[in-house]
């Protein structure tokens, strides 16, 4: 009967919830010692300049290999760490590690490559964020303009006035700002004029449907045009095919990032891969015109 199946359904969701909160507790427990056990590392995914075909920058992406739980995706553990505050020490680790790598790249002659770091919501709200960044940049003798912060729409929409002040301070300190996953938030476009940023990263969910979905193609082209009207650079995320790369290039997208060009690179391999890519790109001519 309807009543019984209703109850079954309730039990089914209940069991799922129970399972989810159990694995959440397990993850929280294992996160506690993850830093001291050196279970975190960063990998780096190149961003390709669509005109020159060279590597313009890197995005630092965290990886967690838990001794007990195996590999856990940042999409899973970042929101948990964000809720319980463990994100603070994780964020410090990420910033320190990314800046160390950037300094190493500089000393190996990669003077124009910049490093993008994903900010957590808590980090963005931290009143000491700007001071902390200034000090880590100074300690590693970096140029602030070589460091790019990726923020999401939801992070800045939460408290608009405070966000505007923070963004302005970060730019005054010389850092670059990018809106990550652009187009997935539900905010109005007018915020782009209220908040001054440098770049938009078109979300993978638009890019992945090129060339099969003409709506998403039109949206992507429109986002690029809009960004350029506002003097913003555009990066496309999750570019997996030549067709996508070609479409983005035809529509004047500035940079592209995705498996088609390069998967995230392990720290120890980074310099070798960058040296190889420097030679490869013009030859392979992966960027179609
Ligand atoms: P995101 O910043 O939007 O990063 C892009 C994600 O897409 C990364 O997943 C990347 O590995 C993946 N990706 C790149 N190219 C392709 C492609 O061609 N196809 C597909 N299918 N995927 C691609 P990842 O590394 O699992 O990170 C997931 C999310 O976790 C990130 O999304 C970001 O929001 C968050 N995250 C990662 N690292 C950090 C970090 O150090 N700090 C913070 N706060 N968040 C991080
Ligand atoms: Mg990102
Ligand atoms: Mg993104
Ligand atoms: Mg994304």
Provide a concise account of the structure shown:
By secondary structure, the chain is of the alpha/beta class.
Q: How would you characterize the overall build of this protein?
A:
The protein is α/β, with parallel strands linked by helices and 289 residues long. 50% of the residues lie in helices and 19% in strands. It has helices at residues 2-32, 74-84, 87-107, 121-125, 129-139, 153-157, 160-172, 191-194, 204-207, 214-229, 242-250, 270-284; strands at residues 40-49, 55-66, 70-72, 114-118, 147-152, 176-182, 199-202, 233-236, 255-256, 265-266. α1 packs across α2. The model is unreliable at 1-5 and 283-289 (pLDDT under 50). One magnesium ion is lined by residues 180-181, 201, 237.
Task: Give the secondary structure arrangement, pairings included.
Elements: H1 2-32, E1 40-49, E2 55-66, E3 70-72, H2 74-84, H3 87-107, E4 114-118, H4 121-125, H5 129-139, E5 147-152, H6 153-157, H7 160-172, E6 176-182, H8 191-194, E7 199-202, H9 204-207, H10 214-229, E8 233-236, H11 242-250, E9 255-256, E10 265-266, H12 270-284
Parallel strand pairs: 2-4, 4-5, 5-6, 6-7, 7-8, 8-9
Antiparallel strand pairs: 1-2, 1-9, 1-10, 2-3
This protein binds ligand C2E and magnesium ion (3 copies).
One magnesium ion (MG) binds at residues 59, 118, 150, 180.
Protein name: cyclic-guanylate-specific phosphodiesterase
Domain EAL: 24-278
């Amino acid at each position: 009967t309807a009543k019984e199946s209703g109850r079954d359904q309730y039990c089914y969701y209940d069991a799922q919830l129970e399972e989810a909160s159990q694995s959440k507790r397990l993850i929280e427990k294992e996160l506690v010692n993850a830093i001291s056990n050196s279970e975190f590392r960063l990998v780096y995914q190149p961003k390709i300049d669509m005109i020159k075909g060279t590597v313009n920058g890197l995005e630092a992406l965290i990886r967690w290999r838990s001794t007990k739980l195996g590999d856990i995706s940042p999409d899973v553990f970042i929101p948990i760490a964000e809720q319980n505050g463990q994100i603070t020490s994780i964020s410090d680790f990420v910033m320190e590690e990314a800046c160390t790598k950037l300094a190493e790249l500089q000393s190996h002659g990669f003077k124009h490559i910049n490093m993008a770091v994903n900010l957590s919501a808590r980090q963005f709200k931290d009143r000491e964020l700007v001071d902390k960044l200034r000090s880590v940049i100074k300690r590693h003798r970096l140029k602030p303009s070589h460091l790019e912060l990726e923020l999401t729409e939801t992070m800045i929409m939460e408290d608009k006035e405070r966000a505007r002040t923070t963004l302005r301070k970060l730019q005054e300190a010389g850092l670059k700002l990018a809106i990550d996953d652009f187009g997935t938030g539900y905010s109005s476009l007018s915020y782009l004029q209220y908040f001054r940023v440098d770049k938009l990263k078109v979300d993978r969910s638009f890019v992945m449907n090129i060339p099969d979905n003409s709506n998403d193609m039109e949206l992507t082209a429109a986002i690029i045009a809009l960004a350029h009207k506002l003097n913003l650079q555009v990066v496309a995320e999750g570019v997996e095919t030549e067709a996508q790369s070609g479409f983005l290039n035809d529509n004047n997208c500035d940079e592209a990032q995705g498996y088609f060009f390069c998967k995230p690179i392990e720290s120890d391999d980074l310099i070798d891969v960058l040296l190889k890519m420097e030679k490869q790109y013009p030859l392979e001519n992966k960027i179609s015109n």
